[in-house]
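Appendix B. One record, verbatim.
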Amino acid sequence: MTPRPVADGGHPVSLKQARLPRWTPAVLALLAAAAGCGIGLAAGLDSKIQWGLIAALVFILGTFALATAVEGGRQAKDRMATNLVWIAFLLAVVPLVSLLWETVARGIKVLDGYFLSTSMGTLPDAMPGGGIYHAIIGTLEQVGLATLIAAPLGLLTAIYLVEYGRGKLAKAVTFFVDVMTGIPSIVAGLFVLSVWILILGFGPSGFAGAMALAILMMPVVVRSTEEMLKLVPNELREASLALGVPKWRTILKVVLPTSIGGITTGVMLAIARIAGETAPVLLLVWGAKTINNNPFEDAQQSLPLYVFQQWQQGSEASYDRAWAAALVLIAFVMILNLVARGIARWKAPKTGR
């Protein structure tokens, strides 16, 4: 017969620990919400955010006290840590949902086929009408050129750092990549402005903005590609080299195909990162109210710059256009992220049978 466990005082203890019912967190959350509203009203607090923070504090303390009394200190600490994680998650999600809701509510007013297929032309900014077709063309061309510049350079740099990089040169390249990761966008714009426009004498163009965007995009591509290449098992490289395959061909035929999903995801996320940049476009592209399909000549518009300029006008019609353009820009970034996730899942190594 198995003896029962004995506590320090000599009294037998139960193997089954007391647990709070599953509905306890929901009930405590409702009580905490009521307490937060009551305390907020009694204290004269106008902000609903303050009410929510009071409710969260009441919920955490109440759960900890009740769990300590029923389940013990260890389980109470576990519940407290879990509640803190959930509350931090909600604090991060609430502003994002609020931003998306506000953008959709305000931007849907003028967002239609006419708005997407029309430029501003000669329409005064204070008048209703007009659209963002010229801004969409400019954004696609500028981001596309930046990708054509940054993606190959970033990919080759990452391959060098992972496969060949040794010694001081590799350390220097890694250092400058880390520095470029934190460069403000306005600095990249000023650099291209001083070299391309002031020294070389070229005028504002979409290509000038694309070069600044490429500077911002390149370190993201390098870092993401470098991490993906490091995940490729060395056994694959060694097996290929053992068969007499040259190293460059091993990289081309073994390493890159194995990590292509992650590399593509990193490039797509880098594109999403630069799609909303305004400062370098404002310095180098200047913006235009008419359609300019040539990114190598004259001023050109882009979606983030369009939003900034329309908001700057200060009229009701320009505010509506700014919100609608912001909604289109958010949709563009979301589509890029969804495409990146789809490619990562499609190209992910197959496991199991």
